[in-house]
Amino acid sequence: MNKTILDRREIRAARTAKPEHNPWQPIGQDWEIERGVHSALRETLTVYLTGAECPFTCLFCDLWQHTLPRKTPVGALPKQLAIALENAATIPENAAIKLYNASNFFDPHAVPIEDFDKLANLCDEFVRITVESHPKFLGERCEAFHEMLFGRLEVALGLETIHPAVFPRLKDGMTLSDFDCGVEWAKSRGIGVRAFVLVGLPWVPAVEFPTWAARSTARAFEAGADRVSLIPLRTDDGILRTMREKNKIEPVTLGHLEDALAASFEVIKSETSGIVEADMWDVEALIVCQHCAADRIERLKHANQKQYLESEVPCHCTTT
Ligand code: SF4
Ligand SMILES: [Zn+2]
């Protein structure tokens, strides 16, 4: 295995041009049903916001495509969120919300502190508010936002993998100990933790994708996370796209996501009350066989809600 770690400049140079976004419009929004850690199913609204790009440059991350080439203007995020809530019309009782800004919510360039109050007020109807953050951005700003909220704050931290040879090449500015400390810091303040774990890794054979996802899930729960979202690796741009085109990365399929979820359920069965879920964003990109795709996607959605997988969907593609 090549041990070279690419620097930020090389990773950025391999990207295509950033699409333009209007800072006064959200990128999009989605409703889904999520299982609560200690409770029943919850309607959950994800709002995709745009703002300043993350200062870290993780090799696998494509979130920069949804960001602005400058600091987020004051007032832009409350405006985006207000539009998303208007589009959502009625908010169901006990709903949760994810404010995903394609960066770090507690980076002052990404979310101006002047907007915290307004953002917190707009979230008053939600019982859980999830935001993304690099562990190094947890601190006073996170505590301040937590105190302004009516519902419970949950931070989503990217662990991605514990593969010892891949982790240092994927993750920018983070060690496993940063992740552990971030989880501990949040939990000791009553803030929930969701961890992101990748399904699919560069430099790793596809047959190992589910095992590494399950091992990383186990590690996230050991650290104290409440919930793990399994995220299929996206290889549509930059260095990973070049690697895919040269057949140096095996594409992630629905089957890998199913197997990663099954393996993660096995790992946590006796050890934790945590929740594991397959991230369904852009799941259509993982389809290999059209005959069984719709049923398999439904099966994954059910598994996210029930925390077990129903029987396999029969198809010639999975039985051979
Ligand atoms: S810290 Fe998060 S948002 Fe920033 S580059 Fe890494 S994965 Fe992407
Ligand atoms: Zn099939």
Instruction: Spell the H/E element sequence.
Output: HEEHEHEHEHHEHEHHEHH
CATH-wise, what's the superfamily? Aldolase class I
DSSP strand count: 8
Q: Helical content, roughly?
A: 25-40%
Shape type: globular
Cα gyration radius (Å): 19 Å
Assign the structural class, choosing from mainly alpha, mainly beta, alpha/beta, alpha+beta, or little secondary structure: alpha/beta
User: In total, how many domains does the architecture comprise?
Assistant: 1
Low-confidence stretches: none
Alpha plus pi helix count: 11
Distance N to C terminus = 31 Å
Bound molecules: iron/sulfur cluster, zinc ion
* CATH architecture identity: Alpha-Beta Barrel
Mean pLDDT: 93
Overall CATH class: Alpha Beta
- Give the DSSP E fraction (strand runs of 2 or more residues): 15-25%
Strand order of the largest sheet: 1-2-3-4-5-6-7-8
Which topology does CATH recognise? TIM Barrel
Keywords:
single chain, 320 residues, alpha/beta, TIM Barrel, 11 helices, 8 strands, 17% strand, binds zinc ion
Commentary on this structure:
- By secondary structure, the chain is of the alpha/beta class.
- The protein has a single domain, classed as Aldolase class I (TIM Barrel).
- It has helices at 8-13, 76-88, 116-122, 140-148, 167-170, 176-187, 209-223, 238-245, 254-268, 293-306, 316-319, and strands at residues 28-35, 41-48, 96-100, 128-132, 152-160, 192-199, 227-232, 275-278.
- Strands 1-2-3-4-5-6-7-8 form an eight-stranded mixed sheet.
- The longest helix has 15 residues, at 209-223.
- The chain binds iron/sulfur cluster and zinc ion.
